[in-house]
Amino acid sequence: MANSPVRSQVMPLDAPRVALLGVCERAAFVRQGHHLLWRHNLIGLRHTLVNYFYPCGASGWHIVFACYDPFTFPGGRLRLTDDTSKELFNINFTWEQTTGKLEGSGLEQREWRLTGSGQDWQLVHFPLEALVIQKPGIIRVFLQIDNAAEEICVGQLYCIEATPQPLTEDRIAAIRSDPQAAKYVRVVLGCKKCPAKLYVHAGIDRPKDLDGKEKVWYEDAPEEWTCACGLSIIDLKSVRKNLHGILGTRTPRGDQESELTFIRMYEKGALADVCAEFGALLDNNPGEQELQQFLEKHTVFLHRFSPVKIKRKAPILTKYQTDFAILDSRGMLLLVELEKSKTKLLKQDGGIAQELQHAFDQVREWHDEVRRHWVATMECMGFRHDEVAGVRGVVIAGRNQGYASPHLMRLKGADYGQVEFYTYDDLLEDAVNLARHME
Length: 439
Fold this sequence. Notes:
This protein has 439 residues and is α+β, with helices and mostly antiparallel strands. It has helices at 169-176, 237-242, 268-283, 288-297, 354-372, 374-381, 405-413, 424-437, and strands spanning 18-24, 26-30, 39-43, 48-51, 56-57, 62-68, 75-81, 87-94, 121-127, 132-133, 137-145, 152-161, 182-190, 197-203, 215-217, 224-226, 233-235, 260-264, 307-312, 315-316, 320-321, 324-328, 332-338, 390-396, 419-422. It contains eight helices and 25 strands.
């Protein structure tokens, strides 16, 4: 007897009309061509907001939803609360369906107008410019559809406090290497009911104009600040501990009234002046010590190595000492050997000169020593062995002038194994190009 076929039944499932997809760093509704070809571009979609300190704003962030068959209701109200049910943000929204024709250019269409029809999902997003997150924890997202008696919880967001790297000498040197990194930051805290404000500052150097009352250094800030009218009480413990964490971020310079203001390490003119100073120094044929001191002061000329930490004169056990040890953004440890700017690079026939070959051999000896005594060397140099993915050598020596172009290009393009080679003119040209393309 043949088996009877099994008939599958599709059971209807109750599903929410609106689903929270998360928050994203950037969102844009691209209107190009026919309206059926319009699309959303989202970057960094997630359910977590990670910050070094609280309170903090959500400027630049967008909250993203998927709505099922939204045309059956005209709009609603979106509300965000913290884990104590305190309201943090709300917005009322409406939408309209597009017509079959595209009238005018795509850029003239309304931003929140939706396309399509019938029982399908539509993507929508709203900016969170007015949201201020007071503390780490859970943010619950509620939605009330027009004419509905109750609101429903459509999802949660998670706010996490991260621990930044300590502001060590190595970290400061790496920040100084990026001309567009923030060397100074100021956060403004205030009350909506009274004009009282507190300006909290952090930087790689401490400013001298802080009065200790309205303008305070982050480590000297009170644990709690109360405004003049007493309605705003702000916990500053994480600000005191972690405000320095955003130093080094690459961000446009803020205006004087923004809640979070940054000052870059270099403006265009200042970087051009430092480049001119370096060029003049090189023209005077400085010794290794002068070059070491200049590059320690102006680590921007080490920018091409993408430093996360820069250590000067880092020892390799008791046998050797580097001029710089640079941990880059990939986790590679670069052992840097500086030679004189007048070091001879090439012989008459285009072969490597003895002085330069000696520098290559020196760096290879460093590399072998590190490889054979990995853990001990990392501890000696002040790096955790689990933060270093590998080791390479770097030789910086000589100038470009005085050599036939084919010979010089062959020297720079050759494969030296675990060793990279640059002239001082390469470092200078990098910084000049940075200055040229700065805003």
